[in-house]
C-alpha cells in the first residue's frame, strides 16, 4: 500500500518547510509514504526548497496555470508513480498533517472512495462571521448539487482512493474542490467526511481577492458543473419557469377577452407568445445537451479505460520493476543469445573439408 501526499505550491518557499515537517513519515497500514510537490510557476525558489527538504517527487510548470490544473497534474503524477492512496493538502500549512492517518482511515477500511476533511468552520478562529456563514451556505448548495453530505465542501484536505482518482476530471480553472465533489456524487462514489484540526493562519488566500469574487466564481462553477452532469434536469427547470409564465399570461388574455366587451391586452398575448416560444427552444436545447452529456459519459469511460491501460494494466512483477526491483527473466536471456553464434562456428569449418575430398580423388 503506497501513499503519496501531494502539495500544490505557488510561491510557498517560506511556509513549505513547516508544511513538510508536519507531514507523517510512517502510517500504520501503509507500506510507503512519499511526498510530491507541484510547483505552479513559482518565482521564489519553491522547487529548490523542496529539493533541499528531500521531497521525493517534484512537478514543475514554467508559468502559473492555476490551482485546479496543478491539482490534476499532481493526481496524474501520483497515478504514474503507482500510488494506491493520494492525500492532497495545502502548502500554507493550514491543515494539521498529524490528521492524515485519520483522513485515510475510511479508505483503508473500504468505507469510502473520497474523504474530505471537515474543518468545523465554526471553530476556526481566523474565519470571520461573514465567511463562516458563506461557507455554510456554499456547502449546502454543493450538497444539493452533488447529492452528498459533506459539511465543508471547500476544504482542500482530501484523501482519494486510486480508483476514484482514475475517474477524476477537472475542467474548471478556478478550483477543484467544488467540481470534484459534484462529480463524485454524480458518479455514485462513496464520499465521506472526517473532522480535522487546522493550524494558525500563515497568510491570506491567493485564490481570490475578495469575497464577492469568490462568490461569483464559485456560483458560476457550481452552475456550470451541475448543468454539465445533469443538463436535462437544469434545462427542464428553466423550461418550466418560462412555460408557466407564458401559460399564466395566456390565461389572463383569454379571461379578459371573453369577459370584457372591449378587447385588448395584446401586450399580454405578445409576451405570452415570446415566453412559450422561448420555453420550447430551451426544451430543445436541453434535449441536445442531454445527448451531448451521454456522449461525454462515453468519452469519459474511454479515457478511464486508457488510464487503466497506462497505469494499472501491468503484472505485479512489472509494477515492482518500476519501483526498483530486478527482473530475472532478462538476465537469463543474455547467455542464450551468446550461445547461438558459437554453435555456427563448427559448421563454417566443415565446409572447406568437404570441398577437399573430391579434389583428392
End-to-end Cα distance, whole Å, is 78 Å
| Major β-sheet annotation | 7 strands, mixed
The main sheet orders its strands as 3-2-1-4-6-5-7
Domains counted in the coordinates: how many? 2
Rg (C-alpha, Å): 31 Å
Give the overall pLDDT as a whole number: 82
The SSE order reads: EHEHEHEHEHEHHEHHHHH
Please characterize this protein's 3D structure.
The chain has 361 residues and is an alpha/beta fold. It has two domains: 228 residues, Spore Coat Polysaccharide Biosynthesis Protein SpsA, Chain A; 81 residues. Helices cover 56% and strands 11% of the residues. The protein is built from twelve helices and seven strands. A seven-stranded mixed sheet has the order 3-2-1-4-6-5-7, with helices on both faces. Helix 5 packs parallel to helix 7. The protein starts with a strand and ends with a helix. The C terminus is likely disordered.
Amino acid at each position: 500500500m503506497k501513499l503519496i501526499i501531494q502539495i500544490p505550491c505557488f510561491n510557498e518557499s517560506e511556509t513549505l518547510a513547516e508544511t513538510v515537517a508536519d507531514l507523517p513519515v510512517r502510517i500504520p497500514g501503509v507500506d510507503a509514504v512519499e511526498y510530491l510537490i507541484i510547483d505552479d510557476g513559482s518565482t521564489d525558489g519553491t522547487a529548490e526548497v523542496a529539493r533541499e527538504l528531500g521531497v521525493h517527487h517534484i512537478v514543475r510548470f514554467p508559468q502559473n496555470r492555476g490551482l485546479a490544473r496543478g491539482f490534476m497534474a499532481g493526481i496524474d503524477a501520483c497515478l504514474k508513480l503507482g500510488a494506491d492512496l493520494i492525500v492532497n493538502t495545502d502548502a500554507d500549512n493550514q491543515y494539521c498533517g498529524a490528521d492524515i492517518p485519520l483522513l485515510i482511515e475510511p479508505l483503508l477500511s473500504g468505507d469510502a472512495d473520497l474523504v474530505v476533511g471537515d474543518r468545523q468552520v465554526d471553530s476556526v478562529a481566523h474565519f470571520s462571521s461573514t465567511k463562516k456563514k458563506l461557507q455554510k451556505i456554499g456547502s449546502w448548495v454543493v450538497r444539493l448539487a452533488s447529492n452528498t453530505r459533506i459539511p465543508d465542501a471547500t476544504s482542500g484536505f482530501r484523501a482519494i482512493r486510486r480508483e476514484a482518482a482514475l475517474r477524476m476530471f477537472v475542467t474548471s480553472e478556478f478550483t477543484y474542490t467544488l467540481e470534484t465533489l459534484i462529480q463524485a456524487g454524480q458518479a455514485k462514489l462513496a464520499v465521506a467526511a472526517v473532522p480535522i484540526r487546522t493550524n494558525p493562519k500563515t497568510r491570506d488566500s491567493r485564490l481570490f481577492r475578495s469575497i464577492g469574487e469568490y462568490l461569483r466564481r464559485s456560483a458560476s462553477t457550481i452552475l456550470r458543473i451541475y448543468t454539465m452532469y445533469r443538463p436535462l434536469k437544469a434545462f427542464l427547470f428553466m423550461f418550466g419557469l418560462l412555460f408557466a409564465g407564458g401559460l399564466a399570461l395566456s390565461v389572463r388574455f383569454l379571461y379578459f377577452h371573453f369577459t370584457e366587451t372591449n378587447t385588448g391586452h395584446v401586450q399580454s398575448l405578445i409576451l405570452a407568445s415570446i415566453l412559450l416560444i422561448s420555453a420550447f427552444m430551451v426544451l430543445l436545447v436541453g434535449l441536445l445537451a442531454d445527448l451531448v452529456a451521454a456522449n461525454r459519459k462515453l468519452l469519459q469511460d474511454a479515457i478511464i479505460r486508457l488510464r487503466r491501460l497506462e497505469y494499472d494494466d501491468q503484472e505485479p512483477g512489472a509494477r515492482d520493476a518500476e519501483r526498483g526491483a530486478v527482473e530475472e527473466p532478462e538476465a537469463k536471456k543474455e547467455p542464450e543469445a551468446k550461445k547461438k553464434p558459437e554453435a555456427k562456428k563448427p559448421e563454417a569449418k566443415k565446409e572447406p573439408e568437404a570441398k577437399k575430398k573430391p579434389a583428392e580423388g
